[in-house]
């Protein structure tokens, strides 16, 4: 055994206590002998594959027995361990694979398809993909491989986000890792009786202490399921059941545990076996400890750690004995561990106690620096200025701190958390401490935010029930100078967390979407403005608006504007057009317009006369024809799948489904045809059973579930017999399920699907707690809308709309000549796939600014951008793009389930001599007029145009553009955790669809394309073309479309690579 190489210490334990449990998952466990033998066999296999000393081996497996086996095997083979997460972005994974040039990827059956997809999509040269369950272990020795490493050899790489956005990789070594593990073993008396939990994300270096601490002393590593880890109630129950004695975690997770303990019976001792909780990564506050010690958990020792990844895990510690009296006090981090010194310097000199300086860590047990980045390494691993006769490096942490009089160390925050506000340098942590000092304040995050003039403003996010913004600001006026009081205050109920339990600052809401700058806020005046503000708050989801806020700058979209128009029509009996919203984008101007406008009586949709059969809408008629005569019977199935985690009450779920079917007549509807007329029939009762399949005993339940889901998706519905909704439950584990949900498009659409899913889990939450149905009754049903719409179609207003559309499509209609990779099939297909990418934040910001300056919506700008791109490919100056819209222009239909979606065919005729802004104004006119005339059904338009039938194409347009909202959220009142799941539903209804979503500061793009027309490589090239075209157009307002170039030649392709690298910091 070489104590300085940690896996040899494990080997000694396997010899000493071979039958002890080494790793315990919730459903299986492994002894030291079994773990060591299999790790040895895998290590011998790796050496046979040519893996040698300090060669990188990538590992893509979940936490648990497989991860421990792979980690030890890589160490034993002499290699460098590189853990990966399939949730990482493709850019991050590409950087990891290419930078390390890894030749081996270890994975498991559950992630095999993911790994193979990564290799294919990223075009990786990885000769050895090892599936752990399928390896011929019996062909390899179970003996410990001969040790080929020295203590100073590299043994792991972890990637962490850099301040520039590009990931940094730091390279660990055996000696330093072993030093920390042995320090912790000795300091806390960890021995074979200890059980240590693994709660850290496996792609963080903290996971190494979780795994290797118990395995170095004969103890047990306890690994919860992800669903257990993500729910504090089940996590604490698991910690008790597993009799865990030591936990490493971040303070955010510990705070959740404290709060849970605080609401429980204080007479019952919780977590009786737990001895130590060691925390690092975030500050600990006095109020946190006050709450913990008040819960009766004083038997658990709390330890505050501090260190940097670059210096190998933690380098200082403080064993906390009691809670401080001051709730806002930041807990110090104690003193250094063995063989470590912490130096606080100011202008190159050691600071006296109480003086603030920059924190440096000096220890021989650091990492080896940043992988393949000597310049960055040299910038933070610097020579100790007090040592002149030899090389002695210390790490420049970037943290500020001070020595306390008793020799302990207090960390005060990051140097890069100093920002200039109003010309003054401000320490964010100082502002945070001031806010935390207010009685009743629970948690605080203070950030600097760039306003529209690119000037810093302070944003304070806080959790404090009952404390208003006015009260907080008034309090801060007594604590801070006026010029450093935050400009924005955002009350929160909880903070978003990263996968490692820290506050996810990037996921915090943008302040503009919640409140206005107090300096610009002006309260509404008069009854009309008050009613308008109520409408805006409801649709925009804002708390505070005022009369001067611009609707489109406050998160308004064209779709949301249409909802406002509908509400105005109902509330004020005034007809407002979309063009009016753009011309009068704030409450003050719109109220004046409403007050001066002529009114027309709001007409609610009447309830249809009861009868056996009811008319269908034109859209339903079109889908009926497609179903009866089309060659793809399952084309209009709308499948969805959700992962349910937690204790599931199946009876409550079945009851929720039954009540949902009763609530929405569309779910009890079938269709009949008589004499060429299609009609719908509403059934009084229609049973929709929840079929259940138990997959707990199969070898790979998730893979089997995926196959079942895809098979279920392809089963056609019988429109005449029904039901046109199917549900199925697949049980993967005790508290883990996949819920399949499928409807036919003739009774549903995307908006309807969101209604159904949200209402289903609202009902489930009620019934699982034996509560009554909380949903309000519906005023009308879809059949009432269908009858009303058919009456409207004969109305003069609809005739005017029909005339508009027929004028739009008069003359010869353009057919887009976008080049395809394969000949167009004789019959239109819907075989599809998707390709995702991002439009960088800089380009996104330019595009949004351009739209606002031209009085256009972001959607209009995106349509113009796509048309500019297509123009460069085809040279065409007359083109039609499809834009699916919700079609719910009447407020009465907003809560209904049914087929309302309509297609707007956006035809724009323009010259290639136009600039982008000129094109945008043409598109703005097209879109505005289209929205004004959106009541006319697309299917009616197609019939009215009497187009020559082309079985190879969709009618009128081959390309669609969509701007969608964020993914749906679910009711959180039940004990279930619900997440969307896509087992591989891939279709493409047209040649190419651009689906845009705003995420953080970037536009996320999904290209949905027909695989019988396009190769994936073409979509990859289209990403480069699109971003490059946008960059040219937005950087030069006077550049005509005709002067915009595409990246098509070999020389230009190289230029594209450089361009993309510069955007994504890949170089």
From TrEMBL:
<dbReference type="Pfam" id="PF00668">
    <property type="entry name" value="Condensation"/>
</dbReference>
<dbReference type="InterPro" id="IPR045851">
    <property type="entry name" value="AMP-bd_C_sf"/>
</dbReference>
<dbReference type="InterPro" id="IPR023213">
    <property type="entry name" value="CAT-like_dom_sf"/>
</dbReference>
<dbReference type="GO" id="GO:0044550">
    <property type="term" value="P:secondary metabolite biosynthetic process"/>
</dbReference>
<dbReference type="InterPro" id="IPR042099">
    <property type="entry name" value="ANL_N_sf"/>
</dbReference>
<dbReference type="InterPro" id="IPR001242">
    <property type="entry name" value="Condensation_dom"/>
</dbReference>
<dbReference type="InterPro" id="IPR010071">
    <property type="entry name" value="AA_adenyl_dom"/>
</dbReference>
<dbReference type="InterPro" id="IPR036736">
    <property type="entry name" value="ACP-like_sf"/>
</dbReference>
<keyword id="KW-0596">Phosphopantetheine</keyword>
<protein>
    <submittedName>
        <fullName>Amino acid adenylation domain-containing protein</fullName>
    </submittedName>
</protein>
<dbReference type="InterPro" id="IPR020845">
    <property type="entry name" value="AMP-binding_CS"/>
</dbReference>
<dbReference type="Pfam" id="PF00550">
    <property type="entry name" value="PP-binding"/>
</dbReference>
<dbReference type="InterPro" id="IPR000873">
    <property type="entry name" value="AMP-dep_synth/lig_dom"/>
</dbReference>
<dbReference type="GO" id="GO:0031177">
    <property type="term" value="F:phosphopantetheine binding"/>
</dbReference>
<feature type="domain" description="Carrier">
    <location>
        <begin position="523"/>
        <end position="598"/>
    </location>
</feature>
<keyword id="KW-0597">Phosphoprotein</keyword>
<dbReference type="GO" id="GO:0003824">
    <property type="term" value="F:catalytic activity"/>
</dbReference>
<dbReference type="GO" id="GO:0043041">
    <property type="term" value="P:amino acid activation for nonribosomal peptide biosynthetic process"/>
</dbReference>
<dbReference type="InterPro" id="IPR009081">
    <property type="entry name" value="PP-bd_ACP"/>
</dbReference>
<dbReference type="GO" id="GO:0005829">
    <property type="term" value="C:cytosol"/>
</dbReference>
<dbReference type="Pfam" id="PF00501">
    <property type="entry name" value="AMP-binding"/>
</dbReference>
